[in-house]
Amino acid sequence: MRIKDLEIFLDLLKSKSPTQTAERFSITQPNVSMIVKRLENLIGVRLFERIGKKLMPTSRALFLGGMWLEVVQGYYASLKNLESINTQEIIGELNIVATHTISEYFLPRIIFEFAKAYKKVKLKLQTSNAKECFDLVKSGKVDLAFIEGKISPQYAKSEGLISEMLHTDSLIVVSNDFILASRTRSIQDLLDRTWILREYGSEQRKCFLNALAKQGVEIPISLELNCTVAIKNLVIYQGALSIFSEIAIKEELENKVLFPIKVKNLSLEHHFYSLKRQSQLHNEILVKFEEYVLDYHL
Predict the structure, then answer these.
(1) pLDDT: is 125 or 73 the higher one?
(2) Distances (CA, A) of 102 to 97, 123, 165, 292
(3) Over 80: is that where the pLDDT of 89 sits?
(4) Which of 170, 189, 149 is nearest to 260 (CA)?
(5) How far is the C-alpha of 123 from the C-alpha of 88, rounded, in Å?
């Protein structure tokens, strides 16, 4: 039995005309007759008697009409309440931690759009290295962490966490010298350059140096900084070399301020992951924010 069938039946009780009921529901008169027949078969009694061009409801039909009207009204009332729940304003706080590149270049626009949509939600974002992010979410001091690098679901599970890969990026060696970047270089060609890398503990640095170590290469590091913007400025204005996540230098690459150097036998994928506790209680704000992150397109 469908709600639509009950609505048609109730309308027919009033109109007593299959033609008028069919017009109101944008169906054919035979369809109205078929629905009546289906209801009669279901309950095992006649519901209408034909008198001339009209269908007159039986006493049983009038009795059922009162009951089924409550069913239909209750159905639509429940839909209205559900809609009210779904559109109810969310109030609360969400604490997030992220590694530097994600905090500076991936999350800001998402947080801005989320804040516009949910004006009574307070978002707190702090920036830390990967280990600190991991420890903060694991200890329950933050609700959600975003980390660069590589985290297997098995490892996350063993630590009581749930991981989800959100974005795949590339690590790129860059320079302000378009001539240097005009052809593929070997890493040996670049060893005499001034290299500036992120601080110890940075996943970008770790990924890059591990890849070079597999080739038996060690680069001279002239300076270590924990600020991507500062490193970027030194590469642009002082001619240093560094490695960046592509998302961090997207604008500079487009504006031809920085140039990617293709290095032989060096291809580095870089992943962004979210982390939350397996024991995390249901948090509607967290669920909504995760949806925003997953729907975000760079």
Answers:
(1) 125
(2) 10, 16, 13, 15
(3) no
(4) 170
(5) 18
175 token code pair: 């320079």
Torsions phi, psi for 182 (to 5 deg): -75, -15
Instruction: Write down the residue that tokens 């490695």 correspond to.
Output: 243
Chain segment 184-194, per-residue pLDDT in tens: 999 999 999 99
In angstroms, rounded to a whole number, what is the distance separating the alpha carbons of residues 137 and 121? Answer: 20
> What is the reported pLDDT for 43?
84
If you compute the radius of gyration of the chain from its CA atoms, what whole number of angstroms results? Answer: 32
Q: DSSP strand E in the chain: where? A: 48-51, 54-57, 92-98, 121-127, 144-149, 161-175, 195-198, 221-225, 242-245, 259-261, 268-277
Q: At what angle do helices 29-43 and 3-15 cross, to 10 degrees?
A: 110
- Averaged pLDDT for residues 12-19: 91
Q: How far apart are CA 94 and CA 114, in angstroms?
A: 11
The two tokens of residue 84 are: 């009210």
Q: What is the mean pLDDT of residues 274-286?
A: 88
What Å distances lie between residue 195 and 135, 226, 227, CA to CA?
30, 14, 15
CA end-to-end span of the chain: 47
- Maximum CA extent, the chain: 103
Q: Which of 244, 174, 261, 234 is nearest to 202 (CA)?
A: 244
Side chain identity at residue 67, one-letter code: M
Residue pair 72/5 in contact by the 8 Å Cβ criterion: no
144 bridge partner residues: 96
The pLDDT tens digits of the residues spanning 208-252 come to 999 999 989 999 999 999 899 999 999 999 999 999 999 999 999
Q: Which residue has the higher pLDDT, 246 or 2?
A: 246
Backbone angles phi, psi at 169, to 5 degrees: -120, 180
Report if pTM > 0.70.
no
Dist CA 257 CA 14 (whole Å): 75
